[in-house]
Amino acid sequence: MPTVDRWLVVGLGNPGPEYAGNRHNAGFMVLDELAARAGGRFKVHRSRAEVLEGRLAGAPAVLAKPLSFMNLSGGPVKALADFYKVDPARVIAVHDELDIPYGALRAKLGGGDNGHNGLKSITKSLATKDYLRVRFGIGRPPGRMDAAAYVLRDFATAERKDLPFLVDRAADMVESLITSGLEPTQNTFHAGDLNVSGPPR
Asked: What binding partners and quaternary form does the record give (predicted)?
């Protein structure tokens, strides 16, 4: 039986210092902020993830950063969900999102993966799309730059100015999902985009 009140919050990224500042690692950045709020440190778990067990926004939570590469994230997430007996409906995946402009954050339940290999892997491993997502907008690559190359580049200098604020706000969003649910979180956070990306594209 799933543990009714426990949450599993997973940040998506690639392990290793060479990837730490990449746009694709926005999920890891948010999880580091949440770990600081939970007052603990990540430890390596047998599920092939760094894990922190604690309380987040007053609720029991497991914070996790898979140690697999992005396209294999589903294995560790499924292993953690099974180990901690967490239902997929109480899994929150925090990830970068090309289809949302930089400065915007979105929460959703279910839906497609928009070509995101981490989400694709999680959906396959959990055998359901019905888990929560916090989508960290990174915008589309400039000109003809390949999207795969773009996500593996560090945030630009201009973007880094606002990055701490956005990471903090995404962490707030995760806590709001836990305390208030999806619709109130959407109502609160979708209206508060940071205007850093110029006119709509």
From this structure: Monomer.
